[in-house]
Amino acid sequence: MCIFCQIVKKEKGADIVFESERVVAFRDINPKAPTHILVVPKKHIGTINDMTEDDRELVGDMVFSAKIIAKEHKIDDGYKLAFNVGSKGGQIIDHIHLHLLGGKN
Ligand code: 5GP
Ligand code: ZN
What we know:
With 105 residues, this protein is an alpha+beta fold. The chain has helices at residues 3-8, 56-72, and strands spanning 16-19, 23-27, 35-41, 79-82, 98-102. The chain has a 5-stranded antiparallel β-sheet with strand order 1-2-3-5-4, with helices on one face. A hairpin with a 7-residue loop joins β2 (23-27) and β3. 23% of the residues are buried. Pfam families: DcpS_C (PF11969). Residues 3-105 form the HIT domain. GO terms for molecular function: catalytic activity.
């Protein structure tokens, strides 16, 4: 099982800040900004390239969740959302995740 599936199933610890039926979000262990949260679907999908038609709503749910989390963390005046795709795109963990970065001036 992949590391993010383990976090989703609570078999591995993480600082979870948001959870819904389909999505979980937790603080990045190696933050690259004052607020750095990873928004992760509970369903295992390797990369954005592995998305199917059925996943369109789920990925929309990830973005919508990020919007809510940004407001909760008071960074909604400006933040970055990013998907790394594949190793050439900087993706290390093979389970899709949306980086939510903010808190810089
Ligand atoms: P990627 O480079 O795949 O887009 O991003 C993976 C992110 O996951 C990295 O920013 C890395 O710091 C974070 N990460 C890796 N392993 C863990 C972990 O076990 N727990 C948490 N909370 N974050 C992790
Ligand atoms: Zn997984």
